[in-house]
Amino acid sequence: MKILTLALVTIFLGGCASTATAIPNFINGKYYMAGDSVCTRYRMLSESRIMCLSEDGTENDYRDAMTDQQLQMYQINKNKSKGINCRPQYGGGMYCI
Fold first, then answer.
1. I need a surface site. Which of 27, 29, 32, 70 has the fewest CB within 10 A?
2. How far, in Å, CA of 51 to CA of 58, rounded?
């Protein structure tokens, strides 16, 4: 019974770890989408590009720094999922109601 319980807990926790989603991470003055299972760690390739590494150090792919528009859209979509209505303002910034 203990082995069955341990196996189920291991499977459940393994499933949780694989569902991590990438979020903007501030790295060397720029934002990069990282934090998912294929990008738990990183290595700088250039001023605006990182190489994503998995937990075991395997290189997966590279990711470019987010543009201001990409970061703004991420924030708008995140707020919409929380029921907050935001829109960009002329000249920069956000207006939320």
1. 29
2. 10
